[in-house]
Design a protein that fits this description.
By secondary structure, this protein is α+β, with helices and mostly antiparallel strands. It has 17 helices and seven strands. Strand 3 and strand 4 form a beta hairpin. This is AraC family transcriptional regulator.
């Protein structure tokens, strides 16, 4: 239930690679039961599992794990083979270096490098040669390598900085969910910076856990949220524990042992607000239930704390551009 929904922007972006290769994306959407109207609505959100299916469908259709955005295609199975190549490495540094070496063997593959900067390590991506109008492949590669590394050692690698070689895109607000760290746009390179202590940590995964991991990876690495260390992330986790009671700001501040004024200020510094976080969570929970048809619209409205269904209808349309009924009809 805590899973964040995916902005429709990313669905439109991933379809561009298929369009580029001349693939009929409308038939793919029809096969997956995804409404084109849902994809085209700028405010719409998509359930994570649906986004995973979309990515996997395009991989199979194009026979390309780079989704049509690379200089040359990457055959499906390449990521899995890389994982098998690194799973027995002694520590994260050896695993990352071996994984990057694996991809460097393929002509036209995007180049990633690992460099030391005193006590820090920078994972850099050379994205200059990519056909990537929405920077989708650049985002994917950085997200996948960060989350794959975190999975290998069994804990989230805390990012100190993420830089991007391009100006802040229109969907830049989504980057807080992708990377959960300070962001710098229009930089000299696209990269992730983290502490070198992680490199010496042993791998906690093995062939058995890798088999389960690869059933949906790397698509699920892109569709699940990065549970970062920000106050916004902590509040989301707190609110999602019991979405039937919906505590107010004063109760949450008391739980965190800070004043309501301090809570508001910290959230403002992160570019958010308590009401915005609450609405995002309610939106995602609504989408979860609308996609499953397990509750009526009235039951969903009650669970989200709305006094009457009409208020829920108005709020949901404001959040997503669609009414709950229209959303349910397009998802099912």
């Amino acid at each position: 239930m805590r899973e964040r929904t995916i902005a429709s922007h990313f669905a439109r972006a991933v379809l561009k690679g298929a369009h580029r290769r001349g693939y009929d994306t409308e038939s793919l959407l029809q096969q997956l039961g995804i409404s084109p109207e849902l994809i085209e609505e700028p405010r719409a959100r998509i359930a994570p599992e649906l986004f995973t299916q979309l990515i996997q469908g395009i991989w199979l259709a194009l026979d390309d794990e780079y989704l049509g955005f690379g200089q040359a295609p990457s055959k499906p199975g390449s990521f899995a083979m890389m994982c098998h190549a690194v799973i027995h490495c002694r520590n994260l540094e050896r695993a990352l270096n071996r994984g990057l070496l694996f991809y460097s063997l393929f002509p036209g593959a995007p180049r990633l490098t690992l460099t030391h900067e005193d006590e820090w390590v920078r994972l850099s991506l050379d994205d200059a040669q990519l056909w990537d109008p929405d920077h989708f492949l650049s985002e994917c590669l950085l997200v996948i390598w960060h989350r794959f590394g975190s999975w290998l050692i069994g804990q989230r690698i805390r990012l100190e900085q993420a830089t991007f070689s391009y100006p802040r895109p229109e969907h830049g607000a989504e980057y807080d969910l992708l990377f959960s760290c300070p962001l710098t746009f229009a930089a000299g390179q696209s990269s992730l910076l983290f502490h070198s202590r992680y490199l010496h940590m042993p791998l906690l995964q093995d062939e058995r856990t890798l088999k389960h991991f690869l059933e949906h990876s790397p698509a699920n690495l892109l569709s699940r949220p990065d549970d970062g260390d920000s106050l916004s992330s902590r509040l989301r986790r707190l609110l999602s524990r019991d979405s039937t009671r919906w505590p107010d700001l004063e109760a949450v501040a008391a739980h965190l042992h800070i004043s309501p004024q301090t809570l508001r200020r910290h959230l403002r510094e992160e570019g958010s607000s308590f009401q915005e976080l609450k609405d995002q969570l309610r939106r995602d929970i609504a989408i979860y239930h609308l996609g499953r048809a397990d509750l009526s619209l009235q039951q969903i409205a009650e669970q989200l704390g709305f006094s009457e269904p009409s208020a829920f209808h108005r709020a949901f349309k404001k959040w997503t551009g669609l009414t709950p009924g229209a959303y349910r009809a397009q998802e099912n």
